[in-house]
Amino acid sequence: MKLTVEIAMYPFREGYLDPIKWFIDRLDQYPNIERVTNATATQVCGDYQEVMHMLATEMQAGFKKWGKAVFVCKFIGDALDLSFRQ
Q: Could you tell me if 79 and 43 are in contact, meaning their C-beta atoms sit under 8 angstroms apart?
C-alpha cells in the first residue's frame, strides 16, 4: 500500500529555519521515498511501512536534537503525484 503525507514542522525556538532544513535533509536519506517541499510544507510518498518508519525515526531524532516542536501531518492512503501543478 502507498502512503502520501504532508508534514510541517514548527520548532519552539527562535532560529526555526535550521531545524526545518535539518529535518528535510534527513528525509532525503530515504531513496525509496519521494519528497517535495514548498513554502509551507513537505510532501512525502512511498510504501506505507517505509514512510511511517521514516516519520517515526526522524521526528524522534528531531525532538532529541532540537527539543520541542510541533509536527502537523495529513495522511492520504494512496500515492499522489507530487509533481502535480495547476
A: no
Edge to edge, the sheet with strand 69-76 lists 34-37, 42-47, 2-11, 69-76
**How does pLDDT run across 9-68, given as a tens digit for each residue?**
999 999 999 999 999 999 999 999 999 999 999 999 999 999 999 999 999 999 999 999
Residue 2 neighbours by CB under 8 Å, 6+ apart: 45, 46, 47, 48, 77, 78, 79
Q: CA-to-CA distance for 36 and 41, rounded, in angstroms?
A: 9
Q: How far apart are CA 86 and CA 75, in angstroms?
A: 21
Nearest by Cα to 71 from 80, 79, 81, 61:
61
